[in-house]
Amino acid sequence: MRVEALAVERRREVPPQRHMLGVVMAMHAFPIMPGMRELVVKLLTSGKQVFLVSGGFRQMIAPVANEIGVPVNKIYANNIMFDEEGKYAGFDDTEPTSRSGGKAEAVKRIKASNGFQTVVMVGDGMTDLEARVEGGADAFICFTGVVRRDAVAEGADLAVGEMAQIMDLLL
């Protein structure tokens, strides 16, 4: 089943409501890796730009991005839409991350719209690795500090388990 079909099916099972987002976030808080904020701050102060590309939902990712120092306008993620009563009204299918190959498309957009010569993608999943395509990410670093997925690590340019290693590579 394609990513798009899975996303639609998931929302049919339990249609989200705007007021539920805070409850869900409190119950399933995204853990922030030790050293993540420091890494982002050092990258930004060194003149590099940091983007967050995720197949998750913008409404849930934005607080995490804010906490680690990534501006909201540098997030590429799915967007849940609600009607005026706060009921689920679908998701924004214009977001590249709403479909298969979306992270690669997001990286291509980032690269083209900012005139970047080089983009390095850091991630731990197969869709992160898939962003390393012509016109997309020029290098992919597999982060194994949370979970190691052998197929992803083997396809990566490098696999590292510590934030400090990423800092050393990118600064």
TrEMBL record:
InterPro entries: HAD-like_SerB, HAD-like_sf, HAD_sf. GO terms for biological process: L-serine biosynthetic process. Transmembrane segments: none annotated. It comes from the Eukaryota. This is phosphoserine phosphatase. One of its GO terms (molecular function) is magnesium ion binding. Keywords: Amino-acid biosynthesis, Hydrolase, Magnesium, Metal-binding, Serine biosynthesis. It comes from Pycnococcus provasolii. Its cofactor is Mg(2+). Pathway: Amino-acid biosynthesis; L-serine biosynthesis; L-serine from 3-phospho-D-glycerate: step 3/3. One of its GO terms (cellular component) is cytoplasm. Pfam families: HAD. Its EC number is 3.1.3.3.
